[in-house]
């Protein structure tokens, strides 16, 4: 197997590392996903992110997680599409390669102290709790168990309260195993982390959250699905059909992309072709 690339950026003394999990086509035509986008807007988005469209005009997505490594600790943001039997298996190109990406970045799942779950969509929680896999994604271990055995998993309380409308099956496959080991911590809005902080960015889902890392005027946002395609980077006002509350999502997106003059903002996104981009 070819060694995986785990690109990284630095914000002060913290390193933000991209952890590729998979690549695959979106499950419906992209014009349905962004019904208001014009031909000109698509053309501009395709110039900005040519890797996100295939020869047949289908939307090609990356699925990735991120690690934030600093002296204070090691955080993972999101958990990809997961192994072959994950909840995303019905539509995403499982198995993902997150275990190999972590190894390539020199990260042992045992040393991760915090996992931020941006939201409860299946392509973001895949490796959070696993059934038949050890930390290398190999040797079967039958009981559902947290893939990061020593981490606190952070989820917005508002997101958990919406689980029945988002995906009720995740109660048994994700929430209960994390509660059983005492590893689930519910947050109420913005919350400081050892490195950076969680920012509530609702709209895509009711309790969606992102992670902000800053050092002076150097800022990075690990976005989650605050934006999912370059067309929203160019036009943050564009609604995405799979947002639970498009108006709230737009406000969250515009608020996070709007930084003071003189500040440099970088975005770490799960689904764009390049892991790091600037608005
Ligand atoms: Zn997603």
Q: Provide the succession of SSEs.
A: EEHHEEHEEEEHHHEEEEEHHEE
Instruction: Provide the CATH superfamily.
Output: Ribonuclease Z/Hydroxyacylglutathione hydrolase-like
Task: Please give the largest β-sheet.
Answer: 7 strands, mixed
Q: Which regions contain 5 or more consecutive residues with pLDDT less than 50? A: none
Give the helix proportion (percent range). Answer: 10-25%
What's the structural domain tally? 1
* Mean pLDDT reading: 94
Number of strands: 15
SS content category: alpha/beta
Q: Which CATH first-tier class would you pick? A: Alpha Beta
Number of helices: 8
Q: How are the strands of the biggest sheet laid out side by side?
A: 1-2-3-4-5-8-9
Ligands (ions, cofactors included): zinc ion
**Cα distance spanning the termini:** 34 Å
The coarse overall form would be: globular
Descriptive account of the structure:
Helices cover 21% and strands 26% of the residues. By secondary structure, the protein is an alpha/beta fold. The protein has a single domain, classed as Metallo-beta-lactamase, Chain A (4-Layer Sandwich). A hairpin with a 7-residue loop joins strand 14 and strand 15. The mean pLDDT is 94. The structure holds zinc ion.
Notable characteristics:
Metallo-beta-lactamase, Chain A; 8 helices; 15 strands; alpha/beta; single chain; 6-stranded mixed sheet; binds zinc ion; 279 residues
What is the compact description of this entry?
This protein is α/β, with parallel strands linked by helices.
Q: How is the topology of this model organized?
A:
Layout (H helix, E strand, L loop, with lengths): L7 E4 L2 E12 L4 H4 L5 H10 L11 E11 L2 E5 L20 H7 L9 E3 L12 E2 L14 E2 L5 E5 H5 L1 H4 L3 H11 L3 E4 L3 E2 L4 E4 L8 E7 L2 E5 L7 H5 L11 H12 L6 E5 L7 E2 L2
Parallel strand pairs: 4-5, 5-8, 8-9, 13-14
Antiparallel strand pairs: 1-2, 2-3, 3-4, 6-7, 10-11, 11-12, 12-13, 14-15
Bound molecules: zinc ion (ZN).
The site of zinc ion has 6 residues, from loops.
């Amino acid at each position: 197997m070819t060694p995986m690339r785990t690109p990284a950026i630095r914000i002060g003394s913290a390193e933000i590392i991209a952890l590729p999990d998979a690549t695959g086509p979106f499950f419906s035509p992209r014009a349905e996903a962004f019904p208001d986008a014009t031909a000109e807007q698509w053309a501009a988005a395709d110039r900005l992110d040519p890797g996100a469209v295939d020869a047949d005009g289908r939307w090609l997505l990356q699925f990735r997680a991120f690690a934030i490594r600093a002296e204070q600790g090691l955080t993972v943001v999101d958990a990809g599409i997961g192994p072959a039997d994950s909840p995303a298996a019905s539509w995403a190109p499982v198995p993902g390669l997150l275990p190999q990406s972590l190894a390539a970045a020199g990260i042992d799942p045992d040393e991760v102290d915090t996992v931020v779950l941006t939201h409860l969509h299946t392509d973001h929680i895949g490796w959070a709790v696993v059934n038949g896999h050890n930390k290398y994604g190999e040797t079967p271990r039958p009981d559902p168990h947290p893939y990061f055995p020593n981490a606190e998993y952070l989820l917005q309380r508002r997101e958990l309260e919406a689980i029945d409308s988002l995906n009720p099956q995740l109660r048994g496959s994700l929430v209960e195993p994390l509660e059983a080991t005492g590893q689930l911590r519910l947050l109420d809005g913005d919350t400081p982390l050892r490195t950076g902080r969680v920012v509530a960015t609702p709209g895509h889902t009711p309790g969606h959250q992102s992670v902000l890392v800053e050092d002076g005027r150097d800022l990075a946002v690990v976005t989650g699905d605050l934006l999912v395609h370059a067309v929203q980077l160019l036009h943050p006002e564009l609604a995405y059909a799979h947002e639970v509350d498009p108006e709230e999502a737009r406000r969250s997106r515009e608020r996070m992309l709007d930084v003071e003059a003189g500040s440099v903002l970088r975005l770490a996104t799960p689904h764009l072709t390049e892991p790091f981009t600037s608005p």
